[in-house]
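Handout, page 2. Input:
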Amino acid sequence: MAPGSMLPPQKALSSTYGVTLATLRQALQRLEEEGLVSQEPGRGTFVASPRLTYRLDSLRGLAEDLKAQGQVVTTQILGQELRRPPAWVAAHLGVPATRRILRLERLRLLAGRPAVHQLSWAPDRDGVGLAGLDYSGASLYAVFAAHGVVVHRASEALRPALLEEELAGLMRQPAGLPVFVSDRVTLGLDDRPILFDRATILGTVMEIRTERAATGVSLQWTRRGSR
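Output:
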């Protein structure tokens, strides 16, 4: 069955294979854990698409990661303007909360289906005019580099979460669906923050992967406090 195809109802499957509903549900749960099917409450069980990998061991934009895996990635620009950032974003970037900076909101689609929502904030540097650049056809890193804003390193925090109501409609998914939320602060050659990104990634579409080596990526496991 092709990815996206709906499986027959559970009662029909239990009858076809001569098993109880409890046994069938255990089997479907195992298939879902292996990434082969996706169970959507109120809709049914669907053949899952192959999960894509979001790598943590390279300094690349998310779109670059996906394109390197042969995926067709398209970008919808949902908003591009100068705006005062929230206080917590201003703190990440080290700018006054009263300063107007670039706010870029994008939706990443894989094979035409929403997979990642990205909200990026960036203060202008050296009069580049970031708010007027074209971000629809290339990664934000590539656009910055083409205009003399060089990326040096980045710090990223990744956490599991549930899809919020305000994003559910944009991503064509029910609120409460498991997602990854990535907060990334990118720094320039002078080690000053040049970009803050928050990406909401559908957990049913992508998995997180890294490789460990003596001189490779350093990972920290931090216990999350209550909020």
